Amino acid sequence: MTINELIGIVPNASEHGTNIDHMLELCHWFMAALFVGWTTYFFYTIWRFNKRRNPKANYYGVKSKASLHLEVSVVLIEAVLLLGFALPLWNDRVGPESWPDKANTLEIKCIGEQFAWNFHYAGPDGVFGRQDNRLIDGNNSIGLDKTDPAAADDIVTKGELHLEQYRPTKIEITSKDVIHSLSLHTMRMTQDAIPGSMVPMWFRPVKAGEFEIVCAQLCGANHYAMKANMITEKKADFEAWQKSILDLRKPAAPVAPTAAAAAPALPQIAAK
Ligand SMILES: [Cu+2]
Predict the structure, then answer these.
(1) 22: domain range?
(2) Whole-prediction pTM
(3) Residue 162: is it exposed, middle or buried by C-beta count within 10 angstroms (0-12/13-18/19+)?
(4) How many angstroms is it from 215 CA to the middle of ligand 1?
């Protein structure tokens, strides 16, 4: 059992998450060592320097260099964690070279609001329809301009994020009102949703399944309930989901006139 599991980490579902978990595990071991070390030292000083053992004050203090060496070791270990693990992982997420090839990337826009997550997909044409906050109303939660031809096949969901297994995914995040934070724990990704900014993040989902999304920024009275579902599915299932939504929008096919409808009306029998 790892410390990560002991304190209840949710299972990882992304490609890079294994490295994040590895670094977390190292940090936890290091913190555990510091915790045990400092606590032991604390009780030692209470015993060693109490008044009964030391009726007379000592004006010379510590002469040993042990504490200096310990402090330097702590700084060195922290430097290794930061420079050797944290910064390279950070660079893998945001470094200019790290972004996946656009042609193979599933791009999604995420718009937070009090207290829900909206997800906007470009649809089969791969082009996002124009968006304008002035168009936001009860039936148009992200202000999608429906007169824009590119918007015709766009898909907007509330509380449901569909991802394609193994496909690099880029999510651009913003908010309509206050600061929220899109937290995909199982993907080891979290990014603040800031009104007026579009902040991108990317990852590659590798584990299929249904996972929980939460808001990680205290954003108001119902912050605790600002959840959504993340569904990672196979390519075929993802495409079927997209098609099922678009099919609902197709106008019903005109009904061919049936023989009964075409037949002349029967003469009415006069009521007596
Ligand atoms: Cu929120």
Answers:
(1) 3-53+67-94
(2) 0.82
(3) buried
(4) 5
